[in-house]
Amino acid sequence: MPAEYHINEDEELITVRATGEVNLIDLLETAKLLEADPAYSASVPLLVDLRDMQVNLEQAAIKPFNRFILSRYGQQRDASIAIVVDQEMNRDLCAAIYWLNCAIGNSEMFEDYDQALKWLIRREFANIL
What CATH fold (topology level) applies to the domain 3-125? Predict the structure, then answer.
């Protein structure tokens, strides 16, 4: 599967990873599966790893994808989202991800996986200690 998710209930972290050639329908289906998973919680931080992804931005799929992401992850998430991209990523794709990142709010975009993880830890777990 080009896009998959993992819910780590012990560490209270959800990770999504997309690799290789992916289309927006694949990403949309993964987002819907994640949201429908009984273990999913909008109060658990989300780390989205897109470093090794190449996506086909089909025009017909862009609006439904954006609508779903903005309504579900932009308005119904209590926890932060860290999005990791690759320096080699296509400019148009990077710009589209950045646009979604800004529109969602409560999220940040990174080029370094470890930095993204540290940001989530500081942001979500600093008050617990």
Answer: Transcription Regulator spoIIAA (3.30.750)
